[in-house]
Amino acid sequence: MRIRLDGVTKRFGAVTAVDGLTLELEPGRLVALLGPSGCGKSTTLYMLAGVLRPTAGDIYFDDVRVNDVPPQRRNVGMVFQSYALYPHMTVFENIAFPLRMQRLPEGEIRRRVHEMAELVRVEALLDRRPEQLSGGQQQRVALARALVKRPALLLLDEPLSNLDAQLRQAMRAEIRRIQRELGVTAVLVTHDQTEAMTIADWVVVMNAGRCVAQGTPYELYQTPPNRFTASFIGHPPMNWLQGRVSGTRLQVDGLPVYLPLPAAARDDEVAIGIRPHHVQLVAPGRGHLDGRVTMIELLGHEKLVTVEAGRSVASMPGGAGDGAAGLRLQALVPADAAVVEGEAVGVRLPVSRLHLFRLSDGSRVALPGAAARRPVAGPVAAAPGDAVADEPAEESAGTAG
Ligand SMILES: Nc1ncnc2c1ncn2[C@@H]1O[C@H](COP(=O)(O)OP(=O)(O)OP(=O)(O)O)[C@@H](O)[C@H]1O
């Protein structure tokens, strides 16, 4: 089923929870509504369910306007964070409940409950009560109950947030499998960007009741259209610097050099984002700036290295001097990279990996060739002591001024 929201607004007294939201969701897709707490995700979901009515605007299921259609007539299945299973009923009866409400014949009910229990893999648990199930099992049952009436739209409200990390990952894959197998259009609400990115075909990023970006997870990660999306998507989060574009020159505040851009852009003050795994650590004096390693956090097969460039590095060869005071960057490097806390390092910022956003409105500065590459296989970080390898001509820095 195709879903269309046309200028949908929801106000609760003085609070505007959803503000003129216009969206079109393709049939069969799993769409994630992603955004910080209070941005209007759940309110949007409840309007799709029919539990809340828009204050203004229209909602269409295929081409039918559903603003006035009550929840029970919308053919929507819903799964909540809290599972909301009926505690006094067995798993079988929980799953059968929506079919009993439809007064289907007993044989048909049995057949469909078993079919659904098989799909979500709870056939062995049909005689148990919810209290005798683990969180993950309860969530599977909730999913089966939402799907048993073959809804045209599946709504998932933070369905995995009560599960531990490992189970959450397993259930993500399960929801994806089941949604694909049934081909049902689904909308998932989450504030967890990893969840949205791993599970969804399409991600709608919301802030303050509005859609600020939408696209495939890959597009939003590779070329975030604005600063809000860039800072919200990706983990560990982007590093942020500030600077100014003039023609094909990028002057980063605190850097003694300017970086040549692959194409000219309008002169503007910019926020400069770079993901930690694109920050390269090199020998002091061999990068764009020098700093000191102030923290190392081991994350498994990688480690997150915090580098601060301040006044203390002014005297180092190639040091950034006073202008670099307060620059702080994080680099993600292989766990076995030879980096030591307290040591001086050089930091290289590959121009093609920089994301530029206008300070005025947060919009992306489009630069052909910049930050549009596919992710490289393998680490890009070099250990201190390594030279900056084969620096392409267009990425070499000029002297500021
Ligand atoms: N029934 C209500 N009465 C008044 N204000 C409400 C009501 N429901 C939601 N709001 C407000 O509307 C805004 C959006 O809430 P909503 O629950 O949609 O956000 P959310 O993005 O789902 O947040 P979370 O991730 O915390 O669940 C918030 O400011 C919230 O306080």
Automatic annotation (TrEMBL):
Q: Where is the composition biased (Low complexity)?
A: 372-387
Where is each ABC transporter domain found? 3-233
Asked if the keyword Transport belongs to this entry, the reply reads yes
Per the record, which residues fall in region Disordered? 372-401
One Pfam entry for this protein is: ABC_tran
Q: Which GO MF term does the entry hold, naming one?
A: ATP binding
Protein name in the entry: ABC transporter ATP-binding protein
What organism, scientifically named, is this protein from?
A: Thermaerobacter composti
